[in-house]
């Protein structure tokens, strides 16, 4: 039913089909307006690529440096050879193998070493060990080192091999380098 009074100011009369309310222009509906900004580009790929390239360049430079320095990185220092003091043993006589075993979990061989400084001054030692089977076939190698060993002092070190072996092995000291500590 309609009212006997006229509609309030600004409103249309309510007869006939109703028209939709006027649209507000201050807020557009969905789908209107500028497109959303594109997602930010990350530089993860660039950082990874530069890191890998830099590492490779450093490795190549290090390899060139080592090859330019000589055939072996374990060369003795170029200081003049020193005479073994009277009563001091040769470096190989300063090292004893006290144990030789294969780890049951990793199957890596290891040699327990006892290094005694027979000189009258502090010394550094680098010891090479090889692991052989019963027939004498070489199965792997390991190294041990100790620094600043005082005169007459004994150190216990382990030469660890990284080759997997099975069965019983024997440990042989192949090279001992002794040089004075600085």
List keywords for this structure.
31% strand, six-stranded antiparallel β-sheet, 182 residues, single chain, 1 helix, alpha+beta, rod-shaped
Structural account:
It is a single chain. By secondary structure, the protein is of the alpha+beta class. Helix content is 14%, strand content 31%. The protein contains 1 helix and 6 strands. A 6-stranded antiparallel β-sheet has the order 1-2-5-4-3-6, with no helix packed on it. Strand 3 and strand 4 form a beta hairpin. The longest helix has 26 residues. The radius of gyration is 41 Å and the shape is rod-shaped. The protein starts with 43 loop residues before the first helix and ends with a strand. About 5% of the residues have low confidence.
The backbone outline, from C-alpha atoms, is: rod-shaped
Q: Give unreliable regions as ranges.
A: 79-87
Number of strands: 6
What's the arrangement of strands in the largest beta sheet?
1-2-5-4-3-6
- Helicity, as a percent range: 10-25%
Structural class: alpha+beta
The H/E string reads: HEEEEEE
State the end-to-end distance: 113 Å
**Number of H- or I-type helical stretches:** 1
Q: What does the radius of gyration come to?
A: 41 Å
How would a crystallographer describe the biggest sheet? 6 strands, antiparallel
Secondary structure layout:
Layout: H1 44-69, E1 95-102, E2 109-116, E3 123-132, E4 138-149, E5 154-161, E6 170-180
Antiparallel strand pairs: 1-2, 2-5, 3-4, 3-6, 4-5
What is the compact description of this entry?
The protein has one helix and six strands. It is of the alpha+beta class and 182 residues long.
């Amino acid at each position: 039913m309609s009212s006997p009074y006229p509609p309030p100011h600004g409103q249309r009369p309510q007869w006939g089909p109703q028209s939709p309310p006027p649209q507000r222009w201050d807020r557009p509906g969905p789908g209107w307006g500028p497109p959303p900004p594109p997602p930010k580009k990350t530089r993860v790929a660039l950082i990874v690529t530069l890191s890998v390239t830099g590492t490779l360049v450093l490795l190549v430079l290090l390899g060139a440096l080592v090859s330019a320095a000589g055939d072996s990185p374990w060369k003795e220092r170029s200081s003049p050879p020193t005479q073994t003091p009277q009563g001091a043993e040769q470096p190989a006589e300063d090292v004893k193998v006290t144990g030789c075993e294969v780890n049951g979990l990793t199957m890596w061989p290891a040699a327990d070493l006892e290094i005694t400084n027979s000189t009258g001054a502090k010394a550094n030692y680098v010891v090479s060990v090889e692991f052989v089977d019963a027939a004498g076939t070489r199965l792997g190698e390991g190294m041990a080192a100790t620094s600043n060993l005082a005169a007459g002092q004994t150190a216990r070190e382990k030469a660890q091999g990284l080759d997997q072996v099975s069965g019983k092995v024997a440990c042989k000291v192949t090279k001992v380098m002794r040089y004075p500590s600085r």
